[in-house]
Amino acid sequence: MKAFLLVGLGGLAGSMCRYATSLLFARTQSDFAWGTWIANVLGCLLIGIFYGLSEKFQWLTPEWRLFLTTGFCGGYTTFSAFAYENLKLLEAGNYWTFSLFSISSFAIGLLAVAAGVFLTKM
What we know:
This protein is mainly alpha-helical and 122 residues long. The chain is built from 5 helices and no strands.
């Protein structure tokens, strides 16, 4: 039960931060969903940092790691919104934006996780 509460509280905090990110990076004239993109990349960086720190220094208890990674990062990143926004781009015929958004989110997100882990090893 404790694990579910930790994930839930972390998810609550992550979801609230996700909403703040979407407000901060609200869409301009572009079809590119900057709020979702920023949240996904930043969430990937954070999860890399959290995992890296927990392995390097063992600062994080298993409970804190669960709260921060599964809870916070799970609530903060937006794969469902990412998928929906991609579908909308395809339906609108915005194939170039769809390709750019999908490929850059995946590639830069993967690099951000690696960067987070790398930063903790320095």
